[in-house]
Amino acid sequence: MDEAKKKMAAQFGTIVQRGLYKEADEMLTELREEVNPEKYLSEDLCITAAFLYNKLGNRENELYYLNKGFLINPRSSSLFVSLGDYYSKVNTAQELICLYQAEYYAKKNGEMDQASFIKKIIDSLENGGITVPKTSIVILSFNTKDYLRQCLDSIKETIPLDRCQVIVVDNASTDGSLDYLKSLDWITLIENHENRGFPGGCNDGINAAEKDNDIYLLNSDTILPANALFWLKMGLYESDKVGSTGSITNYAANGQAVDVKANSVEEFIQFGEQVNIPGAFPYAFKPFLIGFSLLLKRTTLDIVGLLDERFNPGNSEDLDLGLRILKEEKLNLLCTNSFVFHYGNRSFAELLKSGQDYDDLLKKNCQKLIDKIGFDITRYFKDSLKIVDEIRAKRGTSLYILEVGSGIGTQAAVIRTKYPNAEYKGVEPNQTLASYAKAFGEILTGDLETTEFGEKYEGYFDYIILSDVLQFIHNPGKYLRSISKYLKKNGRLIISIPNIRYYEIIISLLADDRFTYSDDGIIKNGTVRFYTENEAARLISGSGYSIKNIKSVIGKKPSVEEEKYINNLSELFDQPDTDDLLALEYIFTAETIL
């Protein structure tokens, strides 16, 4: 049987060439039903299969075989031509990016006839008015010579230099970096005579870039696996709405680090080559992206401006830039199929040697950002997945979701990531916050209790999310009843409610005689009602809803002293279950009672 299947796979190309597409499809279907179908796959079979399904209009199967082909050979010029065919029907800019990469690999692999063939297709697209800007790579150098050498070697190995300008800004290094950089005739070198910091040095590089080029900010302590920049560029031209794209890595904050089991740099690079392949919508929406590997669309950068040098020597400038991009209703996309290896903070390690306190720098720059934008951004980075996980639907489902209390859009970003086909609408009374959230969908501003959506939206939404807003509503029962009309039949209401019985609140009240309002936490300024689990449940049930699930979100682990208080309270009130004291908030999921 195994030999028969191998023979079938060998005959597949001939069957497709004869135009017997139905028979070829049946053959592949039979092969895929095997326990280990990959053993029959080859680069040529995957290319032919992609051609077949392109002809049959089956984009899902076409992408499947492209994905398998790139796992076999991520440097195949023919696979990139096939990938261009895949995008040709939906996005000609992405088609052109694929062909540039195909031409690069054809030349690199010595396939000169193939390169000439690809160049003719490129010329046809460009003559038809399809254009994609080149890229200027901006790298900051400060006493990281050995890491910088690895970074530049990886650029030369994986990136078409005829489509990229490489700019290195040396910030007055003293480790011999400058002499090394002067020996390279393929880079543009900017020699600073003082340390201009990360924002300042990057701005020097951006100002030296060719004026129409997109800008790729890349840390000097990174190494690029094959196709890392290619997939960032593909993400950048996914739509006109995208303003920036960033990579996943082994070392970064902001949810950009992935758990990789690797024992060497080489194993990380191998992992990257297995990750940097085609996928169905391989993106995550983000409020901002970390600047270690950040591609910026030139047209967006021209609108939002350069990095803010008030954040020198560095930290928070990428967060500030991401927020400015959001404010222009552009998107920051994390490309989960662009892995870049990152040693991490090597230039800052050099600063620490000179006496710079890293934690102090973080605090100062965080405060600078708060002063600039007018609110504490960290309050809006809570774990949004806990609420979004209550949405029960498959990824490709076309959902209609309303969120009341959108904030800056952190939860909207998670929703748009998990459900790319969802239509998101939000309500946010704070116009400053709403100006960021509007990048993810239509945001209404105004009083929460009086906002109306009109008859058009009655029975419209699959889910309505109330994100920590019920405690600000003067008449919560009336409000809950009023919004029920906007839910579809069997639609669900998801409510997150802070728990006033949280142990920190009880201890603060009993032991310290404090019940302090603030801009953050459970006792927020403007709160008009407080809730326990039982009180919230009674309110929801009494407002025409049937509660389907209650989830506790556990707060930070109590100290030894705090545990004593909790145990004493448990004994005093004869309540052995202390879960309600450990719950920071509750998430209720409910349906309307018909």
Automatic annotation (TrEMBL):
Q: In which pathway does it act?
A: Cell wall biogenesis; cell wall polysaccharide biosynthesis
Q: Which organism is it from?
A: Candidatus Weimeria bifida
The molecular function terms of the Gene Ontology recorded here are: glycosyltransferase activity
| InterPro entries in alphabetical order | Glyco_trans_2-like (IPR001173), Nucleotide-diphossugar_trans (IPR029044), SAM-dependent_MTases_sf (IPR029063)
Q: So what family is this one in?
A: Belongs to the glycosyltransferase 2 family.
Q: What is this protein identified as?
A: Glycosyltransferase
SUPFAM superfamilies in the record: Nucleotide-diphospho-sugar transferases, S-adenosyl-L-methionine-dependent methyltransferases
What keywords does the record list, in alphabetical order? Glycosyltransferase, Transferase
Query: Glycosyltransferase 2-like domain: which residues?
Result: 136-230
